[in-house]
Amino acid sequence: MSTVTGTTTTGTNTSSSILSIAPKRDLSTSTDVRRLALQHVNPNVRKAKYAVRGELAVKAEEYRVRLTEGDKSLPFDSVIFANIGNPQQLDQKPITFFRQVLSLLENPTLLEQPEVLKTAFGYQQDAVDRAQTLLQEVQSVGAYSHSQGAPAIRASVAKFIEERDGFPANPQDLFLCAGASSGVSTLLNVMCDSPNSGVLVPIPQYPLYTATLSLLDAQCVPYYLEEHKAWGTDIDAIRSSLQMAKAEGTDVRSIVVINPGNPTGASLSADDIKSVLDIAAEERLIVIADEVYQTNVFSGEFISFKKRLRQLQHEVPGKYDHVELASLHSVSKGMVGECGHRGGYFELVGFDPLVVEQIYKFVSIMLCPPVIGQCLVELMVNPPKPGQPSHDLYNKEYSGIRTGLHQRALALYEAFKRMDGVECQEPQGSMYLFPTITLPAKAIEAAHAANRAPDEFYCLRLLDATGVCVVPGSGFGQKANTLHFRTTFLAPGTAWVERIVKFHAEFMEEYK
Amino acid sequence: MSTVTGTTTTGTNTSSSILSIAPKRDLSTSTDVRRLALQHVNPNVRKAKYAVRGELAVKAEEYRVRLTEGDKSLPFDSVIFANIGNPQQLDQKPITFFRQVLSLLENPTLLEQPEVLKTAFGYQQDAVDRAQTLLQEVQSVGAYSHSQGAPAIRASVAKFIEERDGFPANPQDLFLCAGASSGVSTLLNVMCDSPNSGVLVPIPQYPLYTATLSLLDAQCVPYYLEEHKAWGTDIDAIRSSLQMAKAEGTDVRSIVVINPGNPTGASLSADDIKSVLDIAAEERLIVIADEVYQTNVFSGEFISFKKRLRQLQHEVPGKYDHVELASLHSVSKGMVGECGHRGGYFELVGFDPLVVEQIYKFVSIMLCPPVIGQCLVELMVNPPKPGQPSHDLYNKEYSGIRTGLHQRALALYEAFKRMDGVECQEPQGSMYLFPTITLPAKAIEAAHAANRAPDEFYCLRLLDATGVCVVPGSGFGQKANTLHFRTTFLAPGTAWVERIVKFHAEFMEEYK
Q: For the whole model, what pTM was predicted?
């Protein structure tokens, strides 16, 4: 359903009926009479772009509504939302243990009859125990928590980080947040202090970064990833972007690294992470490590920036002591896939305590992250262990999701290989593929005639013809004269992939 | 637990051990070596103030932790968080029907055995039905929804508004949000376009408004409420503040009205609302009606701004057609009290569709409000009706909470009457009282000597002596040379009130 196209408010309708007497003059002035015409909107908001939920997504939702209302005029019978990593909108089932505990937190009276829970509904004792522990901490999931997140949940996250990295973590350095997006917004809000503040952002990137920098009227300093190396991070590209921005007078304060990467889940090697930390140490850049895909890795190994930083601080005393690192994680991705719950956290390493105070004040204005989302963060970082009653089912579900994601990624990759003018890097993880498309000159002309970027034109035609919604590469950034689109590999089955294959052949034929 | 005082990060600890060799020089430069020293933090963040969760709240939490750890050295045995409207942290129990439905949404497998739910756990058929309806809409509470909120939930909110006001409401004009705070932030972000943009804000106010305007580097244009008229809205005060700001060149774009009011729940009369709408129509101000306390009314009647606007649009054709109104509501307050779930909505009336598009884009960057919170909004606006199986219990719980709030408000009010130098307006609603305190000259001197505002000094002493945490009036704004504090009346029992009475007598005696 579209909320942004056309339909006027009741108030406007009232005035429309007046306007119908002398429509032309009044219509032209009607916008001016309002206090907030488009030209008065915050220019930073106006210039922000966010393609993941832009025009294509709105149109796809319109198609979906038409189909549910019985519209038979469309050339497809379902809409496939491959534009956004929204696992549970598609095939992915929530993990049973997580949802059992959350149901108990929402209705603690269920805890009064654990035997019934077990015999009738399959709850195990560890789910009951966990709910009781969490309730003791938060009192009620309907109460505000500490603005930084419930202390015991932060303690649990710290323990997880310690076990993952082999280095200590402090609950006081952790901020729970409403999904990683909210954490990124907080960090950028605090660290950008003028239109001259710059942040290095990988291209292609997740558009949250560019959009948030637009809102803050700060500079995005792009550095390009290496497509031919499966979208790896190119240290030279970072250095040259940085030097160029500095030469232009930009006060570059921070570097964002998405590791594993969005779009392809490429994991940085220990050496690559060291190179980024070298730049950070030498150039005094705050590192924002977006590590929300840390479990979505098909090949290679995830190494956290925190771990690598601590190793280097031990190996080379002095050099890295003052590197400031913020690393983010989320319940939205991975095998958890609970994005609707808006849970996440960031860890601060090496930040000035006076700055941490400012971050605390900033987040306190919004009071606290959703408490049930905080509890889900706790469950994610502290799942059932081997030997605990819920472990076998948890493990089976978790592995099943992982295998399914990998299989679908490969199926999509194989399909792209079969398509003329489409090239795709081998999937390494995350939830996305980001193929290059090479379009015929006539298609590019047609796009320009329609006043569209060529990749946008292609994606729009794909949606209209097949109901498959993907995002044009321009929404993430791409090198000049290249075209891409991003698709998730979350949708079940392969029939929708065949729709793309068929459309693509027809499109290429039409414009050859 | 404190997260902002002192404790260094592990990274800093590493460097501390190095620093211990030559501590003085290195300590003084250690901040400078970091990229983000306090002076580099966004100045808008630095200047923002948010007292509700400030120093006093942090200290109160420290006391709470000490008490739970068995510390016997404090002169009190419990901390009373009267600083924040957090009902379920204190005595208020969640409404059974709401939580039953939420538990089913979190674990839909429970729905497979409705008979067991009924016999063992007291779920009624309407709870089961509602969960099924909501699940059909959102698919999974773990999936992202439409950025504006799930369409069917918005339809339910629109129906509620229509029934409340007697005028149509359109789901497309509604935006669900993560608590009203998030909605206010969205609205101010979109409408403030320069440091010269101004917003009229009532004083005393909820500090969300001043803090958010600070973050946006926009102007708060204060207008004072009339304490002697139970903190009523004074139209002349609005006009004179507006004229003064305009004379200074401020581009005043909007007026915030908190109705019923925070702190005292004073409800605006139909005439007062008309006066505000007159100013809005004449001066072209966008009205932000913060109506989160609409059910917390002990005396008088709540009239929504939307209703009054529609009445006036019918009564006086033309004059009010282009008034832009945004009204907010929330699951956090009222008898629902589910602030930890971060649910709320705002309705836009008369906004330019092109501006609505910008609002949509802005909220889409954070993807969507928490889905379980959206479902709770639906339950709040569409509770069990008379004749439905869950209605009797719902009604009993709802009335019980309302009565309890009123009784505690009166008890606190009576206690204030007994205290020398304390004057308090009769409670009319909301969750707060905001008494004036008149302190002896010696107390004011002592405050200055301690480098504290006098009301802050008083509240700090109160906390140290009694464990009762309230917020100094300066956190909300108060007329020059007046002192206040804000306390909720949510805490159970009256023993804590007696702690205040006793402290106050001793404090007055000490500084007489």
A: 0.91
